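Worked example 3 (structure in, sequence out).
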């Protein structure tokens, strides 16, 4: 009896200790996704509570009025202002400059530094980026990065807060205008919670967006060249609209326009126009493949001012540990896509039958058949040259005299060393294989040039293990 009590008590104590221990650890630094189940995505998609579909009866209850106000009042001020306040050149130049400053706050700061940890930034640079990013009025670093990490982790699923599968306008702006239809998939941001700059920005966020979004640009234009209203309208409101839609394009345009040079599993794409619109975030196919790389564009001539900014900061000693994926792995991705496209081209062409597809015919049958139709043997294959005799550039007579004969030597240089194109074309006239005609030394002549290098799936390649069968056959023959 006592043993039963003991055996009961022991596991209970142990379980308590373990749970207390794990609780202590979890309270400190444990990432939020430490013990999510392996089937997290499918389980969540099935069981998560979602908001009802938006309809005429409920749309006013489903709107996100804060975002809606920011995203409608700002352009309204900009449009009204543009019609009533003349644009001075100093204000125009400053507005463009400030567009890049606040844009970089998002691309170099929020995105590449904090959401992806693509490099390390010194404290002064971090404060600069946190303030510049606040001037773009897109939420705090922590909120933004949490959503963006979910976007990468659950790309093209309903757990991606700006899922491109739901359409261009949804991923561009729609997702912000209504209350989130479901909670974005789990993504850990415990590293960001520990960062003093991020905590500082979070605490002062409202002051910062007003200060950096409107007060600073207005004051600069006012004190600089006496253009208070121009500063407010152009460097404040109009510039903010451009920054908003520029960065929104990373979620919409970058998942819609362009090529997929690294992977075509998901929607992200590379395009120069997207790069132009987004301060260099347009090489989004690369970015989703190699998200921790500080670059989006890997070629020097591609437009990626965010990369150039980070690089210059590193030269000035403000940034360090710029991460780059190994070039070897980047090239593998590119090659995979190139081979895939070549394979599609290859499958779109008609190829010559090989010896397994053709009847094997002995010399006597070949001779007999050649009296009825124009057959020529070349490199062990029997070809029906009837449709080609009149087209032969060297003249009909050269083919006619080879009918019923082996023209291998004549074809491969004895009379004329035929081109690759000629050899490829010849292979399309194959109708049979001559029994015993595949002598050694003809190997490269049996395979038409266009088929010597081909794109094959791994399942079509003979594996090194397959040779064991051949070896046992060989031994069998010897035996
Ligand atoms: Zn994306
Ligand atoms: Zn990203």
């Amino acid at each position: 009896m006592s043993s039963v009590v003991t055996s009961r008590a022991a596991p209970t104590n142990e379980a308590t200790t373990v749970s207390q221990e794990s609780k202590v650890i979890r309270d400190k630094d444990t990432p939020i996704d430490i013990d999510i189940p392996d089937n997290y995505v499918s389980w969540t998609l099935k069981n998560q509570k979602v908001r009802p579909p938006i309809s005429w009866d409920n749309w006013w209850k489903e709107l996100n009025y804060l975002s809606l106000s920011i995203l409608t009042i700002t352009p309204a001020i900009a449009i009204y202002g543009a019609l009533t306040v003349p644009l001075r050149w100093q204000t125009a130049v400053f507005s463009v400059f400030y567009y890049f400053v606040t844009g970089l706050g998002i691309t170099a700061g929020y995105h590449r530094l904090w959401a992806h940890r693509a490099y390390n930034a010194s404290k002064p640079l971090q404060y600069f980026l946190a303030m510049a990013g606040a001037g773009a009025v897109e939420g705090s670093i922590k909120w933004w990065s949490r959503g963006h990490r979910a976007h990468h982790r659950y790309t093209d699923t309903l757990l991606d807060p700006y899922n491109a599968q739901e359409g261009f306008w949804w991923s561009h702006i729609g997702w912000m205008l209504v209350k989130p239809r479901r909670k974005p998939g789990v993504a850990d941001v415990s590293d960001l919670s520990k960062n003093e700059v991020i905590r500082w920005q979070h605490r002062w966020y409202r002051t910062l967006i007003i200060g950096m979004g409107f007060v600073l640009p207005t004051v600069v234009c006012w004190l600089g060249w006496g253009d208070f209203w121009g500063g407010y309208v152009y460097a404040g409101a109009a510039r903010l609209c451009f920054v908003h839609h520029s960065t929104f394009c990373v979620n919409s345009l970058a998942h819609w326009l362009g090529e997929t040079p690294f992977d075509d599993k998901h929607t992200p794409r590379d395009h120069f126009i997207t790069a132009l619109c987004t301060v260099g975030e347009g090489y989004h196919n690369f970015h989703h493949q190699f998200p921790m790389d500080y670059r989006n564009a890997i070629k020097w001539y591609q437009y990626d001012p965010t990369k150039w900014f980070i690089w210059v900061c590193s030269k000035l000693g403000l940034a360090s540990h710029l991460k780059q994926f190994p070039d070897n792995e980047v090239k593998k991705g590119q090659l995979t896509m190139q081979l895939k496209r070549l394979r599609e081209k290859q499958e779109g062409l008609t190829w010559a039958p090989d010896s397994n597809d053709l009847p094997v015919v002995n010399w006597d049958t070949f001779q007999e058949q050649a009296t009825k139709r124009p057959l020529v043997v070349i490199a062990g294959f029997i070809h029906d040259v009837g449709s080609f005799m009149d087209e032969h550039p060297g003249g009909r007579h050269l083919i006619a005299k080879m009918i019923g004969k082996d023209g291998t030597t004549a074809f491969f240089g004895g009379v004329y060393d035929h081109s690759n194109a000629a050899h490829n074309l010849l292979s399309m006239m194959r109708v049979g294989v001559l029994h015993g005609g595949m002598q050694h030394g003809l190997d490269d002549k049996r395979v038409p040039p266009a088929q010597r290098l081909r794109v094959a799936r791994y399942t079509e390649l003979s594996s090194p293990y397959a040779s064991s069968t051949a070896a046992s056959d060989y031994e069998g023959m010897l035996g």
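Notes: Residues 2-28 form the longest helix (27 residues). The beta strands are 120-121, 319-320, 360-361, 375-378, 381-384, 430-434.
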